[in-house]
Amino acid sequence: MTYIYYNQRTWNTAGGQDTEPQIPEETKRMWEHVVKKSNWRVVELPNGYFQTECKSFPDCGCDPNTDECQDTWKDVTRRETIEGAERAIDSSIEHYKKKLKTLEGPKVVKTFK
Questions:
Q1: Boundaries of domain holding 43
Q2: Treating both helix axes as pointing N-terminal to C-terminal, what angle do 82-102 and 25-34 enclose, rounded to 10 degrees?
Q3: Each residue of 49-82: pLDDT tens digit?
Q4: How far is Cα 42 from Cα 14, in angstroms, rounded to an integer?
Q5: Best CA proximity match to 50, nearest among 22, 76, 82, 18
Q6: How far apart are CA 81 and CA 41, in angstroms?
Q7: Which of 43, 69, 97, 107 is most exposed, with minimal Cβ within 10 Å?
Q8: Is 8 a domain residue?
Q9: Helix-strand-coil percent breakdown of the chain, rounded to 5?
Q10: How many domains does one find in the chain?
């Protein structure tokens, strides 16, 4: 037997309820960090593939005065070409930009009289 579960989220602007989605502030800051292209790099691996890496999120819990956290990079994807790696970075940036845009909430596109 197969069960399919889904979760639906909506904004309710009536009744004085909270109109913002319940996304933690730390997650929002991480998304803002990821959409900056200066926080990304491409590294060539010994096997000839290219690895995309994102600079570690600043609030990782480390002491920012030490050199250990300043240059910490997290691997994200691997691609066969540098062009493919750059496209992967651009796609990731666009993905997180869309996530940030959804936090603005719904916008009115047309009203009727």
A1: 25-102
A2: 140
A3: 999 999 887 655 565 565 555 568 888 999 999 9
A4: 47
A5: 82
A6: 14
A7: 107
A8: no
A9: 35, 15, 50
A10: 1
| Residue 60 to residue 100: CA distance in whole angstroms | 20
CA distances from 94 to 53, 59, 67, 69, 99 (A): 16, 22, 30, 26, 9
If pLDDT is split at 50, 70 and 90, which confidence band does 23 have? confident
For residues 65-77, one letter each, b for 16 or more C-beta atoms within 10 angstroms of the residue's C-beta and e for the rest, the string is eeeebeeeeeeeb
Show the tokens assigned to 22. 């319940």
Considering the domain boundaries, does residue 57 fall inside one? yes
- Helix (H) / strand (E) element for 29: namely helix 25-34
List the Cα angle 44/90/10 in 5-degree steps. 135
- Which of these, 37, 45, 35, 46, lies nearest to 94 by C-alpha position? 35
Q: In what order do the strands lie in the sheet with 50-55?
A: 40-44, 50-55, 73-79
pLDDT confidence tier of residue 42, bands split at 50, 70 and 90: very high
107 inside domain: no
